[in-house]
Task: inverse folding
């Protein structure tokens, strides 16, 4: 793959080449680094549903490129938009990107639709990449020189485009020469920590250790964690934040032990249309993801299981949100409205 | 297997038959219900180390029967005791049972050692079985008629002898006709919840759903859990309690959302010789248990992992300890000393 700023460790989770969407198949990592070349927008929708591409910003970019594919193939881009919007319910970046692409489609000159949509999708991707690097630089300032950070799920380049949000902060601090050590939650059921975050940090050369999700309490209570950083799938107007299941428990532990809990996310993750976390739809996925691990069934056939994919962390437990427009501190609601207004006015 | 009180669902995790120790091999559950027949005490030690038998009371009983085997085989029972004590560090029931067996060995009449040690091991097992049922009856009174309970790891008959402590409470309430629903934490890395607790509750016919450990926060914060009950591996004099990794995080969540957090454990789990949880040794096991499952690796080869097997829940977060001598409420320290003294004086 082409490399963003020449750093050896870089990759692209989503890309466009020769009229096709290129997806790094995240279900096959870390054992296999294989790329899907897709020329049918419906296959992109299926890749989002089956989490071959996942992460709030990355599924937004993938959906944008899927609409560009639909336009190139002379399909109804608004019908494609509707189906793409039905793939996953929680991450708002998906709907944000689709709305932006629909606006671009509405405004396109006759005969220019395909070109205009590709241009818009490229812009969304480029803006996300720039946002990641800015989030990384801003967030790195929050980390002391010698710092043990705990992260959950994967808010890396695999979840955004190439650099990452929570992992962008970690990568930026590491590249600045700070002594970082990362505790990587494995993140059941789909093991995004064990499979994806460990893979990204290993490429980057950041010292780390993998743990099971239930070990965080022991590490935090025995003084072995200095900060927790995660990404976000949707941030309500009051700062309540939906993120991968398990995030809430980490925020509660960080609060109890007075260590900072940071959310790193682009402003496209903020949803000012909903007042608080109770209005965020929480995806529930197939029980089989819980009943098996790495493709192997771990419980009895008849055992019932539930599979909530996200939880909501109330604003009061969030020390700061690291966005590409600045660090939003408490009270989060006022800070977000200010930045969102500046963003609209640019 | 012989059945304790004629209930169809019963089994024995540890037993003695025809001069052999019989262990239900817990590493093969739920897919296979197979029993190890062991006539060498060193193989019992290895079965404890490799967690073919696990759970604080059950490893105490297994070690006791191992010493009975050593005596029957004319081996040095005190040397066997030393090696058995080195198998696992955290659960105090192991050391408690070994000390009790050493005392019995010291007091045995000449020529009666083997018989005396078998008698003592049988007594430890029988007392545990009685304790489980008493704990079940006492604990069931704490659960309302319509109750959603969350449990972690396996504090069932597989962890004790046949009935269980935390699961004993659940089984007793269910047999009384209470409407119970159990959320079963899968309990990574070795999945005692998914493999063992789900198996026990299914045999018992208790409605339940398996979840990943990181889903508890979502369920508790959205009002879907009425009580949390776990077992214990060691309870310090002040009530601080070591139990399976992840227990502490549940206690913190229960406390934040004002639902009761109960520990169900026999008095043999109480260690009055240590003042608080900081003195409880926390076992760290092989990283491969985190990096793989059933021989299948879930992360990159070179990824480092840590594997803390237990954590400590401070006394202040424990609503009550359910023991076979009564329910110990806050302040736990005074209540435990009183019951322990009564126990010694019987």
Result:
């Amino acid at each position: 793959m082409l490399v963003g700023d020449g750093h050896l460790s870089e990759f692209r989770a989503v890309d466009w080449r020769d009229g096709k969407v290129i997806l790094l198949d995240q279900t096959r990592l870390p054992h296999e680094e294989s790329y899907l070349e897709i020329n049918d927008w419906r296959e992109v929708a299926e890749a989002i549903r089956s989490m071959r591409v996942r992460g709030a910003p990355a599924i937004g970019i993938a959906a944008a490129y899927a609409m560009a594919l639909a336009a190139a193939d002379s399909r109804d881009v608004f019908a494609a938009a509707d189906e793409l919007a039905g793939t996953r319910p929680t991450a708002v970046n998906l709907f944000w990107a689709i709305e932006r692409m629909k606006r671009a489609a509405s405004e396109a000159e006759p005969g220019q639709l395909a070109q205009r949509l590709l241009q818009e999708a490229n812009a969304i991707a480029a803006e996300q990449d720039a946002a990641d690097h800015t989030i990384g630089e801003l967030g790195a300032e929050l980390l002391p020189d010698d710092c043990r950070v705990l992260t959950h799920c994967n808010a890396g380049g695999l979840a955004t485009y190439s650099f990452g949000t929570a992992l962008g902060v970690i990568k930026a601090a590491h590249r600045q020469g700070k002594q970082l050590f990362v505790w990587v939650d494995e993140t059941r059921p789909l093991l995004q920590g064990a499979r994806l975050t460990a893979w990204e940090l290993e490429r980057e050369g950041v010292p780390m250790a993998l743990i099971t999700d239930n070990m965080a309490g022991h590490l935090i209570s025995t003084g072995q964690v200095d900060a927790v950083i995660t990404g976000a799938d949707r941030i309500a107007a009051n700062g309540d934040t939906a993120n991968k299941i398990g995030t809430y428990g980490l925020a509660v532990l960080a609060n109890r032990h007075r260590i900072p809990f940071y959310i790193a996310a682009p402003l496209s993750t903020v949803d000012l249309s909903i007042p608080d976390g109770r209005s965020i739809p929480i995806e529930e996925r197939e029980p089989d993801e819980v009943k098996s691990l790495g493709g192997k069934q771990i419980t009895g056939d008849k055992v019932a299981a539930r599979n909530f994919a996200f939880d909501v962390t109330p604003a009061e437990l969030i020390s700061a949100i690291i966005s590409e427009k600045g660090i939003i501190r408490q009270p989060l609601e006022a800070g977000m409205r200010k930045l969102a207004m500046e963003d609209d006015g640019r």
Q: What stands out?
A: Confidence is low (pLDDT under 50) at residues 1-6 of chain B.
